[in-house]
Every structure is written in structure tokens, then in C-alpha cells.
Automatic annotation (TrEMBL):
It comes from Halorientalis regularis. SUPFAM superfamilies: Winged helix' DNA-binding domain. The lineage of its organism: Archaea, Methanobacteriati, Methanobacteriota, Stenosarchaea group, Halobacteria. This is Helix-turn-helix domain-containing protein. InterPro entries: ArsR-like_HTH, HVO_A0261-like_N, WH-like_DNA-bd_sf, WH_DNA-bd_sf. It comes from the Archaea. Residues 9-64 form the HVO-A0261-like N-terminal domain.
Length: 114
């Protein structure tokens, strides 16, 4: 995907109400697709489509959890921290800042100790 289509795809995704609600909700806490469906007021398949789009652009991560009955389900967490849009004579550029994952922060901590 070239830079222009990537900018357009991310801008389109961030303009979507459902995608924004998913990002806002999962920035506070990991949530399942069913929980996100309730928050967004849309069907679970719609949530899964938005989650896949967000995942492709590395804006959410997923983890598998087990419930009390031993069933497994996935929860999603936003990795997006900040979006900066710059306009110049060359066009629009979008810079994304992502949250560090705990494992990445731990690895960086250990490397800094060396």
C-alpha cells in the first residue's frame, strides 16, 4: 500500500463513528466484540469488520482470555495514542503515535539497564 492510500485509509477509518467509539472504549480498558457491539450500537459482525480494519493499521491489539466457564474469547485494546495531521503543499500527512505494549516497555527497560 503506498503512502497516499495508507493516509486515505486511516483517515477514512478515523472518520467512522464505530471505529472511533471502538478506539475510545478500548483505550480505557480491554473489551470483547460483544461489549463493543453494545457500546457502538451496531451488530457484532460490524464490530468485527472495524476491528479487522483497525488491526490491519496496528491501531488495536487482541488478547485471548478465558471466562469462568473455561470458554475463550478475545478482548481488544487500542494502541493508538495520538493522531497528528499535517497539511503542506505536498498534501496531507498523518502521523500516528502508538502506546507501548507492556512487553515492549519491559524489553526496553532491560536493554537500558545494560
Amino acid at each position: 500500500m503506498d503512502a497516499d492510500s495508507d493516509v486515505e485509509a486511516i483517515a477514512t477509518l478515523l472518520a467512522d463513528d464505530c471505529a472511533r467509539t471502538i478506539l475510545e472504549a478500548t483505550a480505557a480498558q480491554p473489551l470483547s466484540a460483544d461489549e463493543l457491539s453494545d457500546r457502538c450500537g451496531v451488530s457484532t459482525p460490524t464490530v468485527y469488520r472495524r476491528l479487522e480494519d483497525l488491526r490491519v493499521h496496528d491501531l488495536v491489539t487482541e488478547q485471548t482470555r478465558a471466562d469462568a466457564d473455561g470458554h475463550h474469547y478475545k478482548v481488544y485494546t487500542a494502541t493508538l495514542d495520538r493522531v497528528v495531521v499535517d497539511l503542506s503543499a505536498d498534501g496531507l500527512t498523518i502521523r500516528l503515535s502508538r502506546r507501548d505494549r507492556m512487553a515492549d516497555r519491559f524489553t526496553q527497560f532491560v536493554e537500558d539497564l545494560r
